[in-house]
Amino acid sequence: METLPLTGTLRTTSGKGSNRKLRASGKIPATLYGHGVGETKSVTLDPRELGKCLENPKGANALFSFSIDGTENHTVLVREIQRDSVSRRILHVDLVAPNPEANLVATVDVNFSGKCPGVSLGGRLRTPYREVKVSAKPRAIPAEIPVDLGTLDIGDTIMASEIDLGEDALILFERDFVIAKVLKPRGKQDGDEEEATETSEE
Q1: How far is residue 173's CA from residue 132's CA, in Å, rounded to a whole number?
Q2: Domain count, the chain
Q3: Of the ranges 30-34, 46-50, 72-76, 190-194, which one carries the lowest mean pLDDT score?
Q4: What are the φ and ψ backbone dihedral angles of 159, each rounded to 5 degrees?
Q5: For position 70, which CATH number holds?
Q6: What is the pLDDT of residues 131-182, one digit of tens each?
Q7: Residue 96: band (very low, low, confident or very high) from pLDDT cuts 50, 70, 90
Q8: How far apart are CA 94 and CA 42, in angstroms?
Q9: Residue 1 carries which DSSP code?
Q10: Is 81 in the same domain as 22?
Q11: Confidence (pLDDT) at 27
Q12: Residue-number span of the structural domain to which 18 is assigned
């Protein structure tokens, strides 16, 4: 995916009072820092433009070509978004200019697909994680983690270590964990499961 355009304006004031005034005027206060930026910069974003930019397959993990007042340009990621706990309105954004040759850690959604055979036999599908931490260079951050449930029978498990993202990205974990598992039907014993499987095959 190519970088997406995003514009902002440099601001000379900062702090809670200044940020409140900006939000009252319909703007979003933001901070820019990172590779090649120099000192941290306080900038202002347009909420409609930012919202439209985030409506892409990678969301906040996409790379943006950020232009400040049309004169200064940086390739950035949206590193953190602070929202109002009730209205979910964006209150503040952190923009980071990553080193293009260094790996960084990003949170990526897990996308489950396929009809699970074990569930058709009465099993209970367990998917405890809807997102995982991934290490990758900025341009190699995946849009999602695809997980195919189409081969999972009762008792089968997909572990994080089994998911291959290729050479450019890696799921991070200190201890391997379950991405998907089909549990036995409640109240059924192993013999009952075997009988149910044989009956379905006939």
Answers
A1: 9
A2: 2
A3: 190-194
A4: -95, 160
A5: 2.40.240.10
A6: 999 999 999 999 999 999 999 999 999 999 999 999 999 999 999 999 999 9
A7: very high
A8: 10
A9: -
A10: yes
A11: 94
A12: 4-97
Q: Could you read off the pLDDT of 105-126 as tens digits, one per residue?
A: 999 999 999 999 999 999 999 9
The answer to whether residue 202 sits within a structural domain is no
The torsion angle over the Cα atoms of residues 4, 163, 130 and 33, rounded to 10 degrees, is -40
Those residues with Cβ within 8 angstroms of residue 201's Cβ, 6 or more apart along the chain or in another chain: none
Same domain, 87 and 111: no
**Domain's final residue, options 97, 130, 154:** 97
Domain boundary pick from 34, 63, 97 = 97
Question: Are 116 and 141 contained in the same domain?
Answer: yes
- Please state the separation of Cα 167 from the chain's center in Å: 19
- Dig out the tokens for 64 from the structure: 């943006």
Nearest to 25 by CA among 47, 52, 49: 47
